[in-house]
């Protein structure tokens, strides 16, 4: 099971509109480029499942090409990746295969060609921008990106594994996990060695000094901390075990045992996780960057409205602001806190929809809820920058549990897994900022999940625009109401852990038409079908 950290839940910082369909897709293609060893001359991208059904509207094709070109998830040029590929002389073929059954709805096959070589690779995007590589040149593998991986293509012969292990040992690299994947005895094989530290380029040359090794590549771990390596303490595993937790019940016990808040517990866990991985955590610097991007995404569309890529939204936040300011004699029906939260949430989804830079919290499709609540609390209740940091850590503390024990992917669990999770995180953050105890934070999260249980993912035209934008805004209000109920001491019959388990069961029971395929729900309403030309 993947060990989720801060940047997995509050992040990635990325170009919209979808964490799983854009950021996750880009990371898959980036890994293909790494395994191929250079920029290919030609690439064939075959998209399946939800990738095929909604990938065009989500910018999945653009993100895949961007990854092949070596762009990062937060590079504004992702939207122009096809033009960049043409300039770079990279031929791109896209195959949209919505009929072939695949094990995961967000699946892509990538074929890279160039310099007389080919690479065929299958990857899946598992939500929140994370990706797993499942197949290389017809051989099943499992590369999660949690650790740096040394991927060795070899003939299955005696002594190869010993050579690989000895090279890593000689370079003081500890092996966290090792797997041999082969077609047949004495046939083609891949060895995947996951390591506890980064691997230098010279290691590859040493690995190739064996007649049975065909090639070797290093796939660096997904960003943890700031990437700067430090020695791993001898007690790293013990310290991480002290601060790790697998359920809400364990989290409450941890907070009571250590006398800490959820934010403090998650901060200590993140520090321990980074120490175990041998990197500098830089938590506050990252949170400062998160708040900066959140602020820009939530305010820029207010003064500079622009249409989204799909053309379905653009200017809604500015209209709401004008209404709340009494323009044209319009009455304000909601209080200033909820109104401002809705305004910021709408604006963030506008930024997301035009492929601007946002923070996935925990996904891009739900990126407006947490900043909407936090920035509104700052403006209307006077919470400071440092207090907002603690709110984000509280949100991450609950979001980690949802990602670990259920899903934050709309393709797997519907919109309840995205907007529902985001609102649960925001509700917990609001309670914490108001001085609520850890058990009240979990109660607020459970309130949200029970209120939004069964919310389907039905993007019109496969775009993260309608009904996503308004759901973000209304979910911000649900988060605030749920937080107030929890602060009032109203008890829940259903615990946070039970609510997460039920959400997971309900989400996986939803038909495919209601899980991000744009084949059901609002996406099949007559007006939506007219927009999609009878899709």
Task: Count up the domains.
Answer: 4
**What value does the average pLDDT take?**
93
Give start-end ranges of low-pLDDT stretches: none
The percent of residues in helical segments reads: 40-55%
Largest sheet: 6 strands, mixed
CA-atom Rg in angstroms: 23 Å
Strand content range: 15-25%
Q: Separation of termini? A: 38 Å
How many extended strands? Answer: 12
Tally of helical runs: 21
Q: Biggest sheet, strands in spatial order?
A: 3-2-4-5-6-7
Apparent shape: globular
Pathway: Carbohydrate biosynthesis; gluconeogenesis
GO biological process, one term: gluconeogenesis
Pfam families: ACT, SDH_alpha, SDH_beta
Keywords: 4Fe-4S, Gluconeogenesis, Iron, Iron-sulfur, Lyase, Metal-binding
Q: Could you walk me through the main structural features you see in this protein, from its secondary elements to its overall organization?
A:
- Its EC number is 4.3.1.17.
- It holds the Pfam family SDH_beta.
- There is one protein chain.
- The protein is α+β, with helices and mostly antiparallel strands and 535 residues long.
- It is globular.
- The model has no long low-confidence stretch (mean pLDDT 93).
- The chain has helices at 6-9, 19-36, 49-58, 60-69, 81-88, 160-170, 201-207, 236-243, 248-258, 262-277, 283-303, 316-324, 336-353, 369-381, 385-405, 410-413, 415-433, 438-451, 468-487, 496-509, 526-531, and strands spanning 13-15, 42-48, 91-97, 106-114, 117-127, 130-136, 139-143, 148-155, 175-182, 188-195, 213-219, 357-359.
- The protein has a 6-stranded mixed β-sheet with strand order 3-2-4-5-6-7. It has a 4-stranded antiparallel β-sheet with strand order 9-10-8-11, with helices on both faces.
- It has 4 domains: 1-142, 60s Ribosomal Protein L30, Chain: A, CATH 3.30.1330; 147-220, Alpha-Beta Plaits, CATH 3.30.70; 236-277, no CATH class; 284-531, no CATH class.
- α8 (236-243) runs antiparallel to α10 (262-277) and α15 packs antiparallel against α17 (415-433).
- It has 21 helices and 12 strands.
- A hairpin with a 2-residue loop joins β6 (130-136) and β7 (139-143).
